[in-house]
Design goal:
The chain is α/β, with parallel strands linked by helices. The protein is built from 19 helices and 13 strands. Strands 6, 7, 8, 9, 10, 11, 12 and 13 form an 8-stranded mixed β-sheet that branches. A 5-stranded mixed β-sheet has the order 2-3-4-1-5. Helix 15 packs across helix 16.
């Protein structure tokens, strides 16, 4: 029964947008993670059908069950491979099995379908068949991409080389490639499982979606720098930052959830991260003027969001559109506060903002409002060859989706300071080169003019300082002409 209780708890949290399903499952520390994850995902996928079954048979009234617990039990009873529990719960559910099966059959006849999968909404069916590749990030704190590839080849995998187009990410079982955009990411067929693999258990590889690797990769803090991961748990991005920094410098990681922070500590230990300073603290309450953070130049901000880009979450919007809109408005307000707060750190050079949301209200609109309120920052153009851009006019940003990038839905923007003394020692704005031409540790950059040069060319006030129309300069020119005339007279 523990399986169903835990699955119901995770479904309820996911519905309340308290986290992505996969994160919630792995944070649960349930004995059989694979079994729990499969049950939650399948129940969630068929949630609309299951709710109809439960409501039409008045199951909650007869059993006194709560909705989410009833959903996982009904799924296994009439759609799955049978209940995996005994005792009174199984006895109770078996009494209602015939009615539930009859109601399921009636729904199929009404919709003129024969399979359970055909009952799903069209967008869910597309998601179900559009399986994403399995992405694995090589942890360069413990190994190299080349060594990881060699180990996997000896382990029976077939290396197909560097991907050059999106179609190359459609792979057969046991085949794998190096990603076409991110040089430290390896790509496998969708059902490849690494949870029991040596490389994963030893921390040599991190199971992380490709889109989730973008924020740290694009922020690219150099070794020795001081960096903040503002909303850090569960820690994949934190470990990625540490790898880019080569464990040199200081990496401040904040999260308000103590349980998630404890899980993150275990993950970082396995990944060999040593430069971190974890804090169970609200990032909005961190003092930017504290001496502790006086050298912070880079911030990764991945705040709480709707999670609407997560494939398994499926953006379960409620029927109440006003409620959904109110939730998005509240989230966007929180995200903007976090973004504005991050830009207050006095020595900040760059901040990367990311969400796993598909809603412009949490993405482009937040960034646009932030730029209006912080004129000292500008957007950096990112990855010219990336196939999906931010919505107009913020095309410097990146978006990700199942169809265009073969990843979860995601959004990334990189902001940099462009005025004042803090800009003088910045590394040049990024225009990251192709991965086949360079490793991430030696990224090349496209030089752009310093902010002062740009402002002199574009600002009318700056242009006026270049001519001699001021009264003081006119008087000086008159005096010079008089002196010249006098000299000629002599």
């Amino acid at each position: 029964m523990a399986l169903y209780v835990k699955a119901a708890e995770i479904l309820e949290k996911a519905e309340r947008k308290q986290g992505a399903v996969k994160t919630l499952v792995y944070d649960s520390k349930f004995a059989n993670i694979k079994q729990l994850f499969a049950l939650v995902c399948e129940t969630q996928k068929f949630s609309s059908v299951l709710r109809e079954l439960i409501e039409s048979t008045k199951l909650l009234k007869h059993t006194k069950l709560k909705m989410h617990l009833a959903m996982v039990l009904v799924y296994d009873l009439v759609m799955g491979q049978g209940l995996k529990c005994g005792g009174s719960w199984k006895s109770t559910m078996m009494k209602h099995r015939s009615r539930l099966q009859a109601e399921l059959a009636r729904i199929k006849i009404k919709q003129k379908v024969s399979r359970n999968e055909d009952l799903l909404p069209a967008e869910v069916q597309r998601s179900a068949v559009d399986h994403l590749p399995r992405y694995v990030r090589v942890n360069t704190l413990k190994t190299t991409v080349e060594d990881a590839v060699d180990y996997l080849k000896r382990d029976g995998f077939s290396y197909q080389g560097q991907a050059s187009r999106l179609e190359d990410l459609t792979l057969k079982e046991k085949d794998f490639v190096r990603d076409l955009h991110l040089p430290e990411v390896l790509v496998f067929s969708p059902k490849t499982d690494f949870h029991d693999h040596f490389l994963y258990k030893a921390g040599h590889v991190i199971l992380q979606d490709k889109a989730s690797c973008l924020p740290a990769y694009l922020l690219n803090p150099p070794p020795g720098s001081h960096v903040i991961d503002a909303c850090a748990a569960p820690g994949n991005k934190t470990s990625h930052l540490a790898a880019i920094m080569k464990n040199k410098g200081k990496l401040f990681a904040f999260d308000l959830d103590a349980k998630r922070l404890a899980t993150m500590s275990t993950l970082l230990l396995r990944a060999g991260v040593t430069c971190q300073q974890l804090a169970n603290q609200d990032f909005l309450k961190v003092d930017p003027d504290s001496l502790q953070y006086k050298d912070v130049e880079y911030i990764l901000l991945d705040p709480s969001c709707s999670g609407s880009g997560m494939v398994c979450l499926l953006d379960n919007s409620s029927a109440d559109q006003e409620k959904d809109q109110a939730r998005l408005t509240s989230l966007a307000s929180f995200q903007l506060r976090c973004l504005n707060h991050g830009l207050r750190f006095p020595c900040l050079k760059r901040l990367v903002y990311s969400t796993c949301s598909i809603h412009s209200q949490e993405n482009e609109e937040v960034v646009k409002a932030c730029l209006q309120q912080n004129p000292g920052f500008r957007l950096v153009p990112l990855l010219a060859k990336w196939p999906e851009r931010g919505l107009e006019p913020l095309t410097q940003c990146l978006r990700a989706s199942t169809s265009k990038t073969r990843s979860h839905g995601f959004f990334v923007a990189l902001l940099e300071k462009h005025s004042g003394a803090g800009n003088m020692n910045q590394r040049p704005p990024v225009q990251i080169s192709d991965p086949e031409a360079t490793s991430h540790s030696s990224l090349t950059f496209e030089k752009r003019p310093e902010a002062s040069e740009t402002e002199n060319k574009q600002t009318p006030a700056a242009d006026s300082t270049q001519n001699d129309s001021t009264p003081g300069k006119k008087k000086r020119r008159k005096r010079k002409r008089k002196k010249a005339a006098t000299a000629e007279g002599l």
